Amino acid sequence: MARLFPDAPILTAVYKPDERIESTFAGREIRPSALQMLPGIRNHYRNTLPLMPWAFGRMDLSGFDLVISSSHAFAKSIQVDRGAVHICYCHTPPRYLWDLYEAYNSGLLGSARKPLMRYLKRIDGRAATRVHSFIANSYYVADRISRSYGRQSSVIYPPVDVDQFSLDHGDRTHYLAGGRMVSYKKLDRAIEAANRQGFPLVVFGDGPEKDRLSRMSGPSVKLVGSVSQPQLAELIRHSHAFLFPGVEDFGILPVEVQAGGLPVIALARGGALETVRANETGLLYQDDSVEGLVDAVTRFENETFDPENCRKNALRFSRERFEQEIAEAVAGVSPGR
Questions:
Q1: Which value, in Å, is the radius of gyration of the alpha carbons in the chain?
Q2: What is the mean pLDDT of the chain?
Q3: Hey, is 232 helix, strand or coil?
Q4: Do 20 and 116 sit in the same domain of this protein?
Q5: Is 2 inside a domain boundary?
Q6: What is the pairing mode between strands 133-136 and 201-204?
Q7: Which pLDDT band, with edges at 50, 70 and 90, does 334 fall under?
Q8: Could you give the CA distance from residue 41 to residue 218 in angstroms, rounded to a whole number?
Q9: Domain containing 100 — which CATH number?
């Protein structure tokens, strides 16, 4: 988006750039919210969740005819001038406020924070009414936007750096799983499947679940921590398939591994239904359990998948395609209506 609008300022709740982000946005005007002034905010910004609707809502957007928010929570809480247009590229309505409210707010802790969650849900619903046009990052998310906000949306898949991967393969020695180590990605099911069957599994990534996943890993499982794109490409070169037992709104990793010619074994839920072509670029299984994944791996070992078909499928999600579709969507909106 920033490349499409090179002169546009970029507003964000908190600006804490790593080396990649700092390089990408060098020379750009970055405007963090009032939250940036809080002591220690760069390391504890997640704790300011209740303040985020307020922080985005008080941003000064006067004088802009068009504002695009990239929102997975409260960025859409911005307020624009009368006559200006607000397009929201929505990665998801917050799960913990809407369709997974009970799962995220169970037990004593959930009961204690219910008043806050209900307040944030009202604020989020009110913000959605002020959005002029929603763009969802998948049809799965478009359905969730409809059910949560009662709003229709067009779909533009997010950009994936497919050119960072190639069909150059070496000896296939292991299965692959990974990503941010959080509970909803269900990496524990991939590890448990490898423990039961004894097949070699490499797991990459970092996050709050890392210690638990490490403790439960058997001798055939290797955790390698966070990886760069070149390191991921090398892991792909030596993998049989990518195991994807979680439910994602879109899911970048299944597309990246397919760009490297690697088939995916995925739970038939969420974005995987849109990014993996069943029996052509991977297997989609229905049983959301360790046993279901074990059965899928067993079936996979009797199938053959063409790496070129995997890569061809991944090219549907290229960065160039995303930029073209976003530009067309913006051109179709008329500020001042």
A1: 21
A2: 93
A3: helix
A4: yes
A5: no
A6: unpaired
A7: low
A8: 38
A9: 3.40.50
DSSP state of 159: P
Q: How many residues does the chain have?
A: 337
Distance CA 319, CA 333 (A): 22
Whether residue 324 sits in one domain with residue 307: no
**Left (φ > 0), alpha (ψ -120 to 50) or beta: where does 205 sit?**
left
| CA 244 – CA 315 distance, rounded (Å) | 20
Kindly state whether residue 70 falls inside one of the protein's structural domains: yes
What tokens appear for 224 in the block? 């390698």
Position 99 scores a pLDDT of: 83
| Percent of the chain residues past pLDDT 90, beyond the cut | 82
Whether residue 194 sits in one domain with residue 105: no
What is the residue whose two structure tokens read 């279901």?
Answer: 292
Core vs surface per residue 67-103: b (16+ CB within 10 A) or e = bbbbbbbbbbbbbbeeebbbbbbbbbbbbbbbeebee
* Three-state SS at 105: coil
What are phi and psi for residue 223, nearest 5 degrees? -95, 130
Q: How many CB atoms lie within 10 A of CB 186?
A: 21
pLDDT in tens, 229-245: 899 999 999 999 999 99
The one-character DSSP state at 4 is: T
CA dist., res. 185 & res. 133, Å (int): 30
Residues 99 and 29 in one domain: yes
Residue 64's domain comprises 10-159+319-331
pLDDT interval class at 333 (50, 70, 90): confident
Is the separation of the CB atoms in 207 and 181 below 8 Å?
Answer: yes
Any idea what the Cα angle at residue 166 is, between residues 204 and 324, rounded to 5°?
A: 100
